[in-house]
């Protein structure tokens, strides 16, 4: 029989040559039962698989690229003392780490958005922060700035309560004591 013929089904493919494919020796020979094929470094080609779409109605790219960034957490506009507009994003979160307070709504993806124009304020402890928006009308008539990003009332009112043991509410303690000494506090 002349020319090329396929190997017998029972015959294993053999490699001959020096040890180690392409490392410290020549390229291996790949032999079949009837003909030896000499390997060469220059004549080889490789098929490189890049990321591509799967066929047959697949919609995702099934490659190994990292996912797009999601930018979770407090937005720049959601920081305490920031001026916000209606509908502006305050917090983007997974689950409920920050809670919606007055004039703030929680969306279906748990993000928090402002419902009114105003100043963002926070209260609460870590993992239980409540984010609320103080409207501009209230800020201009009844509030003063305690520091560069915290609002405080100009005067104490009974609805503010009488527990002032932490944070910005400590400033209210002095106002509360003055109010209890005044005529309005004595009548209440």
From TrEMBL:
Listed SUPFAM superfamilies: Ribosomal L27 protein-like (SSF110324)
Biological processes, Gene Ontology terms: translation
Molecular function, one GO term: structural constituent of ribosome
Database matches in Pfam families: Ribosomal_L27 (PF01016)
Domain of life: Eukaryota
GO cellular component: ribonucleoprotein complex; ribosome
Assigned keywords, A-Z: Ribonucleoprotein, Ribosomal protein
Family designation: Belongs to the bacterial ribosomal protein bL27 family.
Identification of the protein by name: Uncharacterized protein
Organism: Polarella glacialis (Dinoflagellate)
């Amino acid at each position: 029989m002349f020319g090329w013929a396929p190997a017998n089904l029972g015959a294993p493919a053999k490699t001959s040559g020096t040890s180690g494919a392409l490392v410290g020796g020549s390229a291996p020979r790949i032999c079949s039962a009837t003909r030896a094929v000499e390997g060469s470094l220059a004549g080889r080609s490789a098929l490189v698989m890049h990321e591509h779409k799967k066929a047959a109605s697949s919609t995702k790219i099934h490659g190994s690229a990292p996912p797009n960034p999601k930018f979770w957490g407090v937005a720049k506009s959601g920081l305490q003392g920031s001026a916000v507009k209606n509908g502006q994003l305050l917090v983007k979160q997974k689950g409920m780490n920050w809670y919606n307070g007055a004039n703030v709504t929680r969306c279906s993806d748990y993000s928090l958005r402002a419902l009114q124009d105003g100043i963002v304020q926070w209260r609460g402890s870590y993992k239980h922060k409540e984010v609320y928006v103080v409207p501009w009308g209230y800020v201009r008539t009844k509030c003063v700035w305690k520091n560069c990003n915290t609002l405080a009332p100009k005067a104490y009112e009974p609805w503010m309560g009488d527990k002032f043991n932490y944070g910005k509410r400590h400033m209210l303690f002095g106002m509360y004591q003055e109010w209890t000494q005044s005529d309005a506090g004595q009548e209440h």
